[in-house]
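> call design_seq(struct)
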């Protein structure tokens, strides 16, 4: 009886415990659908070509978002496209992120073209501002001029497969994503919303936050619900270092730095000991090499730029009557046009920047060459040659020998015509420590 009573008591306790646990599970929220608790949202803004700088900036912004406990990262994006390798690095960081990434194509007039299409579609939430567009994602020859037909098909098919996988993962329009690559189609923000390319159209940041509130986002570690009604925004600046590297990644700046660097090094070689031109040249060349390593460089174009600079500098040393200068200007112009091997206009040296730069360099070198030519033809002002034509005063009578005072010094002098003490005498020639003089203008006194 006692054992039976104890058994019934234990059964009742187990049943009560099971009921309590079941009730608790029924009312406890499921972790995968828990709301995001962070009250802060990080905002990063990037405008320009997708390159290693943009990839590093997004990586740093995501790292800061994770460490600060913010509930999401908003990337304000305005880009014409860029490098495939940098784009893929950014997408890898976004897909692996345990914090939601919202890409907001803004402001009005901005775009997400080429690589920007991939990045926008890879976002956990994709949004666009009115007056923006997205599309034209057909790959171009980023790394080496014209591609043959087979290579074009390979690159295109690879890009299509990549963007389709991204669109399918995020539940976006897969067929349009393929057309964006194959046919370079582009649509407005309203069309993108209707075609389910993006999730939100928002006029500004407050409107975006309002529409984000309560939205569920799938992450690698589960799903969360955004709570943005009382969220505070934290701007994540690019920083001075990345801003500088972004400027250096401009192909126009790369061309300018390479030209200045070559001029500085050549000037130091021609005039050893000047030091400053060598310092400026070395620094400029190092910065140019950094800039060019992030761009698809045509080495024939780079050599033409260097050759053009050498021709311009040789114009100073060799009297070619402008032939070397014209050759230098032509070589620098052709080199600038061929410097970047890409069909993408935003990766090429701008003609509006190239021509003024070449003309300015050519003009400066021409002016220096003209000045050197004039000084070479001028009368020497130092040494023995500089004494010829100088006017002295006869210290004694010269008939034909005597002494004159010249530049504060007493010289033995010879004159073919008599010159009396105190009269002026012009130096005709110098032989050792004796000068031959004559009356000014060669007239006898």
């Amino acid at each position: 009886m006692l054992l039976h009573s104890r058994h019934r008591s234990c059964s009742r306790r187990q049943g009560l415990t099971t009921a309590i646990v079941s009730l608790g599970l029924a009312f406890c929220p499921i972790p995968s659908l828990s709301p995001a608790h962070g009250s802060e949202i990080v905002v990063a803004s990037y405008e320009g070509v997708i390159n290693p700088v943009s990839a590093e900036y997004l990586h740093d912004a995501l790292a800061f978002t994770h460490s600060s406990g913010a509930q999401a990262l908003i990337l304000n994006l305005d880009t014409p496209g860029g490098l495939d390798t940098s784009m893929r690095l950014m997408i890898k960081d976004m897909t692996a992120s345990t914090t939601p990434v919202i890409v907001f194509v803004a402001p009005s007039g901005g775009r997400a073209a080429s690589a920007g299409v991939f990045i926008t579609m890879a976002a956990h939430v994709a949004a666009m501002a009115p007056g923006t567009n997205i599309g034209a994602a057909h790959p171009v020859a980023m790394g080496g001029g014209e591609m043959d037909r087979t290579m074009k098909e390979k690159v295109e098919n690879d890009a299509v497969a990549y963007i389709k996988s991204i669109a399918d993962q995020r539940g976006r329009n897969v067929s349009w994503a393929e057309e964006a690559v194959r046919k370079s189609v582009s649509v407005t923000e309203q069309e993108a919303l209707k075609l389910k390319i993006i999730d939100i159209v928002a006029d500004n940041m407050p409107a975006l936050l309002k529409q984000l509130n309560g939205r569920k986002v799938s992450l690698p570690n589960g799903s969360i619900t955004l709570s943005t009604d009382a969220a505070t925004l934290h701007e994540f600046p690019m920083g001075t270092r990345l801003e500088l590297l972004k400027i250096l990644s401009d192909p126009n700046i790369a061309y300018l730095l390479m030209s200045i660097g070559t001029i500085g090094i050549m000037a130091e070689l021609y005039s050893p000991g000047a030091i400053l031109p060598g310092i400026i040249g070395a620094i400029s060349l190092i910065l140019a090499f950094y800039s060019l390593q992030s761009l698809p460089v045509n080495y024939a174009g780079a050599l033409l730029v260097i050759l053009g600079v050498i021709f311009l500098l040789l114009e100073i040393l060799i009297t070619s009557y402008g032939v070397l200068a014209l050759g230098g200007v032509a070589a620098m112009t052709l080199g600038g046009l061929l410097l970047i091997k890409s069909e993408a206009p935003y990766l090429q040296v701008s003609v509006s920047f190239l021509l003024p730069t070449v003309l300015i360099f050519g003009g400066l070198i021409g002016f220096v060459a003209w000045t050197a030519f004039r000084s070479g033809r001028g009368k020497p002002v130092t040494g023995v040659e500089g004494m010829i034509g100088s006017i002295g005063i006869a210290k004694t009578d010269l008939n034909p020998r005597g002494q004159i005072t010249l530049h504060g010094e007493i010289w033995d002098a010879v004159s073919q015509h008599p010159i009396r003490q105190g009269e002026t005498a012009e130096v005709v020639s110098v032989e050792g420590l004796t000068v031959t003089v004559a009356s000014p203008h060669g007239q006898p006194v």
